[in-house]
Amino acid sequence: MHSHHSHSGQFCKHAAGTLEEVVLEAIRQGFEVYGLSEHVPRYRQIDLYPEEEDLTLAQLSSQFAQFLVEAHRLKALYASQIRLLVGLETEFITALDLESLDALLQKHQGQVEYIVGSLHHLNGIPIDFDRPTFEKAIESVDGSSAFLCAYFDAQYEVLRRFHPEVIGHLDLCRLYNPTLQFSEFPEALERAKRNILYAIDYGALFEINAAALRKNWDTPYPGVDLLQIMLQHGGRLALSDDSHGPHAVGLNYGRLPGYLERAGVADLWFLEYSETPNGYGRHVRAVKMEQNWATHPFWSRLS
């Protein structure tokens, strides 16, 4: 089995454990492919989270470079036990983040094998920190409809500019409103469809992200409505645990098969390393699971 999205306390202050501990837990659970995708640095002091107040911007950049070194060390060390992928998760707070990601990818060309394209802010405000801050972000753009539209517009800019191989938690914009139906916000729904079709066209994988299940959702990301749009248009799905430490590796994976079966998901995909770079200069390619995902022995091994 596979996951394309993870973090460690060694390189992410709101996570726990070392990167190696995360890898060892993935091996213990029987993961075959596991993606290491720490957050890119942020470039304004105002954008640091409370637990990062003792860090400088230079330290954040150095920390990310250290992550790449350690991730590639672990990839080589445990190659006989697991196929590790080394990637990153995007941020888009202001245009500076996009410009800086361009520079980072050039600087670390060959070391960043894939991108998880995600948003965690809107109008400069975190949307996954806590409910009051989430509500503040909604208020900053004059209500729910404008908030959802702005989220999908910002997401589209990330897709258009970087063509991430994995689309991270597509509908994080309803984190604290998990029962929200996009059909009630037609302008936002059109933008979501636009993004989905664009990502399908360039070959992205959409993650089925189990982290929503530990955040009081009844489903993983994305919710049923957007998942059905993906399936109707041939979208390719991949699994992610979005773990924030060894304690969360594979967390709630046991609840994924029921969701996938109810939605009628026939195929799952994963990334694998490729010596030949893809069209965006990164060294991965998407592969369809040959075995029926529902009968994979991984599910029976879950503790």
Structure report:
- Belongs to the PHP hydrolase family. HisK subfamily.
- Keywords: Amino-acid biosynthesis, Histidine biosynthesis, Hydrolase.
- This is Histidinol-phosphatase.
- Its EC number is 3.1.3.15.
- There is one protein chain.
- It is built from nine helices and 13 strands.
- The chain is of the alpha/beta class.
- The strands form four sheets. It has a seven-stranded parallel sheet.
- Strand 6 and strand 7 form a beta hairpin.
- The protein is globular, with a radius of gyration of 18 Å.
Summed up, what is this model?
The protein is an alpha/beta fold. It has helices at residues 19-29, 57-77, 95-107, 131-140, 144-162, 186-202, 224-232, 256-263, 298-301; strands at residues 2-3, 6-7, 33-36, 83-89, 114-117, 121-122, 125-126, 166-167, 205-209, 236-240, 243-244, 269-273, 284-288.
Q: Give the strand order, joined by hyphens, for the main sheet.
A: 1-3-4-5-8-9-10
Proportion of helical residues: 25-40%
The tally of helices reads: 9
Overall mean confidence score, pLDDT: 95
List low-pLDDT spans: none
Number-wise, the strands total 13
Oligomer: single chain
Roughly what fraction of the amino acids lie in strands? 15-25%
Distance between the termini: 14 Å
Topology as a string of helices (H) and strands (E): EEHEHEHEEEHHEHEHEEHEEH
Helix/sheet category: alpha/beta
> For the CA atoms, what is the radius of gyration?
18 Å
For the sheet with most strands, the description reads: 7 strands, parallel
- Give the overall shape: globular
